[in-house]
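Translate sequence into structure tokens.
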Amino acid sequence: MTKPLVHPAIEDVPVEAILHALSDRHRVALFSQIFHQDNPSSCVTLSCVLDQAIPKSTLSQHMRILREAGLIRGERRGVEMRNTSRHAEVEARYPGLLKAIVSAYAIQLEGK
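Result follows.
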């Protein structure tokens, strides 16, 4: 039996949790990819960020932190995990926060 996924109500997510989740360079890269996707992203498509392969256990840990910070919603489909951004919910709670972070991240990438 698999453990249920934690998806907190957005009202219960403090801004500090969001900022902490996105303070790691791999997590902000993962979230940026999910943020820009129209369709759910599988963990397989996210297993390489910043030109580095991420071990499955590390990727699972990063996704759990993003999920528990209210940034993504995960859904199991068989053995595959599908992830979608909760940016509309976060935008309603903290207007402009995620767009500013994702934009700043893109600017940072352009400078490298």
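Note: The chain has one domain: 14-105.
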